[in-house]
Amino acid sequence: MSDVTRRQVLATAATGALALGRPAVLRAQSKEPIHIGTLCPLTGAGGSYGPDMQKAIVAVAERINKAGGIYGRPLVLFHEDDQTNPEAAVRAARKLIDVNKVVSMCSTWASAVTLAVKPVAVEGKVFYLSVSGADAVTEGNHGGYVARTQPNTRLQAQVYAKWVLTRKEVKRVAYMALQTPYAAPFGEMFSGVLKTGGLTISDTLIYEDKKPSYRSEVTRVLATNPDLIMLSCYTPDGTVMAKELYRAGYKGAVLGPAFAVNAKFVEGAGAEVAEGIWAIDPAPSFDAPAYKQFAAAVPQADKNPYAAQSWDHMTLIGLALVAGKGEASGTVIKDNLRTVSNPPGTVVTSWEEGAKLLREGKKINYEGASGSCDFDAQGDILSRPFGAYQVRKGKIEQVSIINP
Amino acid sequence: MTGYLVAIATLVGIRALLALGLNVQWGFTGLVNLGVVAFFGVGAYTAGLLAVAGVALPAAWAAAIVASALAGALLATVALRLREDYLAIVTLGFGEVLRLFLLNEAWLTRGANGITGIPRPLRSWFPAHYDLFYLGLVLGCVALIYLALERLRRSPFGRALRAIREDETVATVAGKNIVRFKVQAFVIGAAVAGLAGILFGHYLAYIEPNMFVPQETLFVWLALILGGSGNNRGAILGAVVLLGLLEGSRFAKDVIPFLTGVRLAAAQQMLVGLLLVVLMIKRPEGLLPERAP
Questions:
Q1: What is the pLDDT of residues B221-256, one digit of tens each?
Q2: What part of A 11-40 touches B (C-beta under 8 Å)?
Q3: Is A209 an 8 Å CB contact of chain B?
Q4: Nearest Cβ partner of A15 from B100, B244, B252?
Q5: Is-contact B21 B149, C-beta < 8 A?
Q6: CB distance from B262 to chain A under 8 Å?
Q7: In whole angstroms, what is the distance from residue A339 CA to residue A318 CA?
């Protein structure tokens, strides 16, 4: 009996040793490779976004390697699943940093995960990019090792509120939000701007995930007679909520984030229920050259706003490494991030273009698939286009672009 | 590599404490506690909130252990009058109630934002090898709790607990106050889980409500059943094997070339599940079955 256990222990140890001896995921050149870790949510709540995010990162890394790598040094990617679980993500991050010796990690999704991984990355001097929205992600002293391409709550809430103010028919607004780290701060900012604009906030309600019915929530909010309901949701709870609102006979407008009001949402709620629902999101710049390259390389990812950000993560890391003259460390990347992402400099839209100019000693300003990718000192992006969408006859159509 | 192994060993130590705590409740006394994570959470949150508020760490930690023990006492006095399966439901419910409390009572718990920047004890004393020190701290706690619980297991008190587990009627006839013994066992287990919570919070330096989901309780149960219910060494070994499987499969997937993305993640979880099933078929009583003291 004990043989079985011993064998299993040996097998595990052997596979572990093999893995260490053979990290050839993307082997191209013979010079010493640069290790990068991906930490996308392949399972758990973020599981519908993570796989495409990882694909985008792989696609960029392959392009970089095909073009000769970073001064001849190939990129080698190590993939871990953050499981949308902070503790599991910390273990995975430790493995990436201590075993795989990555110099950078990218694309965690959930704010809680990013907040848990952040101290590990900062302590390990590993440059860390995420798509998380909570304000705390970039707060505090992190030495510049943390940045993100998702606009913070403040910027998002202002954009939503300003859009609502352009709708002259709206006088009373109710805010309903799924309980998340940004539900409360978003609500405060959003309501604040609307109140200054002269509108009335009829009700504010934060609700729990995974409730079988939201009837009591809907009844309470509708009793306050809103003309517009701001529904800060994810797809599963948003679908249920939209159905409840429809059943309750609500005729006013509904506004949600476009990452939740997506094709799956329309499918789940039904075209009739979803008809006319508005959605806003930090839009990928659909007309930007970088976005077109991204959409061509990762074909199914166009419905996934985070995959475009992951594309930019890998490109930015690659460019910062080139700016560091092929020297690879988290410190080099964080020191060069703003050199390659922010003005002044020639606008570039791909790694190849940027790397060429950098080698010629020129300044560059990367304009990405997800936006202009200009970072402030704290690691937040400065601005970015937002898209306004509406569900029309079962299809999600872009109505306008909002530049904050 | 060392840094990674130290990190994993630290988390194994924390899981081992949880399994040791549950062993007092389930292994010794036969109490089905499906709310282990609640006491883990009470410990982590009490210590974290007090530490962030500037309370000296020893005081914060003592308060956290007392809070977990009190929560255990409260729940036990109410729930232990119920029969086995009802106790399971009540404790499971308690775990979820606590999580929702942490999520929604933001004035006290900071809600979904969680607590960031939990100070790490004696950080400035160990500028270079802090993680090693912390591992030492965790392993020290495991050793201390293990020795204490071994003593408890051999004591007349431990015998009484086992008697209650085997046959409550017989224990009653022998003149034992069953409810009192059960409450005591439950409180000890809860306090140990609270200690694990303290170490967890200060290690990650960040906690948030959704870290304390029922799945965590499940992992503790898995570790205990795998290692051997009723055996303290089994509880520790179970935690080692469980996290060993989870982490080991991480490396296994690095060498299987044709799996990508989601498939990798799913394969990893399937592999862990499969190994657990095999172990349970070959070793139904756990790796280290209970032995009479």
A1: 999 998 999 999 999 999 999 888 888 877 876 777
A2: 12-13, 15-16, 18-20, 22-23
A3: no
A4: B252
A5: no
A6: yes
A7: 13
A366 pLDDT tier (thresholds 50, 70, 90): very high
Nearest-CA distance A175 → chain B (Å): 17
Tens-digit pLDDT profile for residues A213-251: 899 999 999 999 999 999 999 888 999 999 999 999 999
Quick check: A43 and B266 CB within 8 A? yes
Contact call for A54 and B1, based on CB within 8 A: no
Q: What average pLDDT is seen over chain A?
A: 88
Q: Which ipTM score applies to this complex? A: 0.83
Is the pTM of the predicted complex or chain greater than 0.90? no
Q: What per-residue confidence (pLDDT) applies to B161?
A: 94
Judge whether B244 is closer than 8 Å to chain A, CB to CB: yes
For residue A398, the Cα-to-chain-centroid distance in whole angstroms is 20
Q: Is A115's CB within 8 Å of B261's CB? A: no
* Cβ under 8 Å to B: A residues 132-151: 134, 136, 139-140
pLDDT of A285 strictly over 80: no
Question: What are chain A's domains?
Answer: 27-152+287-366 (3.40.50.2300), 157-282+385-402 (3.40.50.2300)
Q: Please, are residues A136 and B206 in contact by the beta-carbon 8 Å criterion?
A: no
